[in-house]
Amino acid sequence: MHHIYHTKGFVLSSWNMGEANKLFYIYTKDLGLIRATAQGIRLNKSKLRFSLQNFSYSNIDLVRGKDMWRITSAKNISSFPFLRSDSDSLILVARVSKLLERLCTGEESNKKIFENFIQALHLLDNTSLTKESKEALEIHLVLNVLNSLGYIGHSDLLNKYLSSPFDVDLTENVLKDRKSIVTHINRAISESQL
């Protein structure tokens, strides 16, 4: 009998496989970035298909397969409906999702990244942010992801953005230091060689 792992996860992306299956990249709270398959999910009768749409946040049950995880069940926590209705927010989430897929290699839990990412998604979904505020939120989130992965060195300027939880006021302060923060981010991504 296989052990069932229970975790919260955010669906970063997915691809069709075969006639009715899908392959998912999911950033999970307890396992980090994983690849997982769901059998028959593209069939109309599938109960999983609504809980595992791209950019959905769900409670997910997994079984470790030979080469990758297999999803046995999922229950939607949030589909972020207001975020989904805004093209700027969707583009932001897509860019950060691709960055996570690129930088998070191997299955390694990083609860700080997970919590920051979900907190940023809730801000996008529950707050009417200006385009500039969304850009600042993306910069703030990417900075925190890179820091959690060890790509950002010590900087007095950055510490105030790395030691506090996300909120609208702090995120908007990012715009004041934007040029310097973006320079740190670009250097970190370049030095990661990923």
How many runs of DSSP E, i.e. beta strands? 5
Order of helices and strands: EEEEEHHHHHHH
- Broad structural category: alpha+beta
Tally the helices. Answer: 7
Kindly provide the radius of gyration, computed on alpha-carbon positions and rounded to a whole number of angstroms. Answer: 17 Å
For the record, give the distance between the C-alpha atoms at the N and C termini, rounded to a whole number: 38 Å
Average pLDDT, all residues: 90
Largest sheet: 5 strands, mixed, barrel
- Overall, the morphology is globular
Strand content: 15-25%
Task: Note poorly predicted spans.
Answer: none
Major beta sheet, strand line-up = 1-2-3-5-4
**Tally of distinct domains:** 2
- Helix percent band: 40-55%
Task: Report on the architecture of this protein.
With 194 residues, this protein is α+β, with helices and mostly antiparallel strands. The protein folds into two domains: 75 residues, Beta Barrel (OB fold (Dihydrolipoamide Acetyltransferase, E2P)); 112 residues, no CATH class. Helix content is 43%, strand content 24%. The protein is built from seven helices and five strands; from the N terminus they run E-E-E-E-E-H-H-H-H-H-H-H. The protein has a five-stranded mixed β-barrel. Helix 2 runs parallel beside helix 4. The longest helix is centred in the last third of the chain and has 18 residues. It starts with a strand and ends with a helix. The model has no long low-confidence stretch (mean pLDDT 90).
